[in-house]
Amino acid sequence: MQAVDIKNFQVNLNPTWCPGCGDYGLLRGLQIALSKLSLDPSQVVIVSGIGCSSNLPHFIKSYGYHSLHGRALPTAEGMKMANPNLTVIAAGGDGDGYGIGVGHLIHACKRNIDITYLVMNNQIYGLTTGQTSPTSDFGSKTKSTPEGNYEYSFSPIFLAISAGATFVARTFSGELEHMSEIIVKAIQHKGFALIDDISPCVTYNKKNTYQWYKERIYKLEDVGHNPYDLSQAIQRSTEWEDKIPIGVFYINQDKLPYDQLDPVIRQGGIFSKPLELTDDQKKEILYSFL
Fold first, then answer.
1. What is the pTM (predicted TM-score) of this model?
2. Which DSSP state fits 168?
């Protein structure tokens, strides 16, 4: 596959993130992946919710849609069902995707619609200046938990696997080439793909820094992990704090994606249908009421 120029996916607009934010890494990794896949920007759409990370569609040359808080996934699913020829990517943060939007995440995993979901996970609410998020570590002191977080964080990797996602991975914004390779695999995968990207917040999360992660991260492929083994994937998904795995946790190629099951999508989606009814269709509808 001949890669296209990465400039095809770059815009003349400087991102508004804080200097050093991990979201810069995800933006660059996605641009590299799209160029490696030789995709046409006019055939790519990126859908986001609300939050710092959800500004991503503004900084990449493709179609983009800035939706409501926690609603990126149902919007992206609707786009893919209407026009299955599009490469649809949803993007957001841990608050948007694992907080208000977690219900949509579960059903997106279950349906296995062929979209890729990129979550920039910084374990904090960055846009609203540093409150505890669903993935904040137990004991984390934030604006909303000044005495320490009393809740235990949950694993989005474990959640996605158990909910039925057919491609589940974690990347790190400090490992750009590794990230871009995984994004390529996720987009090529036929079915719902979740990538949980460790994207450090340099302004409001002073615990989970780049250095903190670098001291703990290891690559799953370096230890012989088999992503087609469900039990291995679940076991690895529970690792955190002392050792943090990145890479592809789980792949399921046996479960058909939604677009291969739905009869309308199989015929090209609503996008391919004429707007007007034929005379025969009008007569059929009319006679059905008689």
1. 0.93
2. E
